[in-house]
From TrEMBL:
Name used for this protein in its record: Alginate lyase 2 domain-containing protein
Domain Alginate lyase: 42-215
Keywords (A to Z) from UniProt: Signal
InterPro entries, sorted: Alginate_lyase_2, ConA-like_dom_sf
Length: 218
């Protein structure tokens, strides 16, 4: 039993190398070598316009988190000058190691200028990485295009933060799309939902998420 299990694992590893070698990297699971950090409700902190009940900007139904916000909504704290958001912050913060966010996202056509997933915290600035949707494209912050044609379909996002190596890697639908330096260590956490960009924001912004997981490499 154990031996055949080991043979199966060996076969899978060899298969992955062959696939990689053939440059069919699309079939590689970005979570390979990572361990699922089981999340429950205690890991979620909800952020929404401070004057609006959560149920008017968020619903969890049928295994899907649906977040929406309007560009003239209030920020999440009275006195904050940030753009409106409805987001889930994943607790607790991490400060070192290699961490990964995974989720399936759906962005309806019309949502634009919205951060849908981010790594908050950094040595320099407030964030390590923002992935935004503009006109169906995913961009790293405002300008660098990561992927296109993302409206009205489910797509898989894997966001790896190697804090020790100072790197961020983005996969969309299991294809590696971006590898970039991070902004230095800090008190770090992943957030997903919708958060208005500084400019070029649609009035209505929505994202849906399911199968959200956090992984860690040991
Ligand atoms: C939820 O996760 C926390 C932290 O990992 C753990 O301490 C707690 O026991 C879990 N609660 C349930 C109901 O599983
Ligand atoms: C809930 O999910 C099931 C299975 O994926 C689907 O058939 C059904 O239409 C969904 N219901 C709603 C209200 O989204
Ligand atoms: C999004 O909606 C606009 C306006 O209705 C339409 O022109 C465009 O083709 C749509 N894009 C996609 C990808 O469906
Ligand atoms: C960082 O966040 C603080 C508090 O929200 C804000 O005052 C400051 O402008 C932000 N800095 C940047 C570079 O966005
Ligand atoms: C915002 O829109 C203006 C005018 O269409 C354009 O020049 C600018 O590049 C856009 N900025 C972003 C961040 O997309």
């Amino acid at each position: 039993m154990k031996a055949s299990y080991r043979h199966l694992l060996l076969f899978l590893v060899v298969l992955i190398f062959f696939i990689d070698d053939a440059r069919m990297v699309s079939l590689v699971d970005p979570t390979y070598g990572f361990v699922d950090v089981m999340l429950n409700e205690s890991n979620f902190e909800y952020q929404k316009p401070y004057d609006t009940p959560l149920c008017q900007r968020y619903i969890y139904q049928n295994g899907t988190h649906r977040f929406w916000v309007y560009s003239d909504d209030k920020p999440h704290h009275l006195g904050s000058n940030t753009q409106p958001r409805t987001e889930i912050r994943i607790l607790p913060d991490y400060t070192s190691g290699v961490w990964q966010f995974e989720g399936l996202a759906f962005i309806p056509n019309g949502t634009s200028g919205a951060t849908i997933v981010q790594i908050h915290g950094a040595a320099h600035g407030n964030t390590t990485s923002l992935l935004r949707i503009y006109n169906g494209e995913m961009r790293y912050y405002s300008t660098q295009v990561i992927d296109t044609n993302l409206y009205d379909r489910w797509f898989k996002v894997n966001l790896i933060h190697d804090v020790d190596g100072g790197k961020v890697i983005v996969f969309v639908d299991n294809k590696k799309k971006l590898k970039i330096h991070d902004q230095g260590p800090g008190l770090l956490h992943f957030k997903f939902g919708v958060y208005g960009a500084p400019r070029n924001i649609s009035y209505y912004m929505e994202s849906r998420w399911k199968d959200v997981k956090i992984y860690k490499k040991y």
